[in-house]
Amino acid sequence: LAKGVGKATWRRYRNELHTEMVERLALRTSLLEAIDDEQFVLQYQPIVDVSTREVVGVESLLRWQHPERGSLGPAHFIELAEESGAVVSIGAWVLREALQQFASWRAADPDLPLRYVSVNVSPRQFRQPGFVDQVRRALDDAGARPEWLLLEITESLVLHDADQVWADLKELRALGVRIAIDDFGTGYSSLSYLRHMPVDVLKIDKSFIDDILASRQQRALVDAIVTLAHNLDLTVVAEGIEDGAQRELLDLMGCPYGQGYLFSAPLWPSEIPTLLGRTTAVAA
Ligand code: C2E
Ligand code: MG
Ligand code: MG
Ligand code: MG
């Protein structure tokens, strides 16, 4: 009997695996058409001052409006896009779109308190030859100032292929573009290395923020990162703040900026001016 159950389980498992592979293959193919078919859209999540809750910037977050599968978050396709190389053209689209959107918000309202738009850049996209020029052109074409752009890169990117990557990071910063390390704390940067990294902002990963109330160790770690960043003249953004007690604690620690459902989920572009109280809310 046990053997029979084992076989049935195995068969089901094999079928699931097969379905998964077929789905991945289908997604991979349709990724390439998705740009031309304008199936990608960006949402924007506010980044706020932890103590005043004022919105200071937004992070662009990619969504794929798949014709059959509905709206897909990056978890469903970014890895595939990175593997297949599609992430290079998708990333180029994201950069242009986010800058154009931001420039149009600023043009419509020059007093808008939004200081910057944060754009996620995948390692493969960053490493492509000519990435710095691509950024320069995207800024020019959008009529955007370099200070309006914050590029979020991964810890692993800064640690590997250091020479070319570091040269490009320095060139971008010389332009006036700022650089953030996303999901900080999940990689392996040594603290002494951090002192020399050509970056401006550390985004503390949500997994650290999740436990700051329950775990004294996690709290100590976040506190140490905030202090260290302050002493190295780096800015900090805490990711994934979901409740008021987390916000209070981070505020006490001196963490300047935060992002999370407590303040706002990612929003559609049209919701941003409304959130900032800039236009009268339009009834749905
Ligand atoms: P990330 O850059 O660390 O972005 C934060 C993620 O956490 C977003 O998920 C956001 O919706 C989610 N989030 C924000 N606040 C909260 C919170 O309070 N609670 C919880 N549970 N989640 C929160 P999303 O949009 O699914 O994006 C996932 C990841 O995909 C991003 O992580 C980023 O690494 C990547 N990604 C997003 N857009 C792009 C893009 O345009 N290009 C590339 N290469 N990667 C992107
Ligand atoms: Mg990010
Ligand atoms: Mg992040
Ligand atoms: Mg994260």
Automatic annotation (TrEMBL):
EAL domain ranges (all copies): 24-280
Per the UniProt entry, what species is this protein from, by scientific name? Actinoplanes digitatis
Listed name of the protein: Diguanylate cyclase (GGDEF)-like protein/PAS domain S-box-containing protein
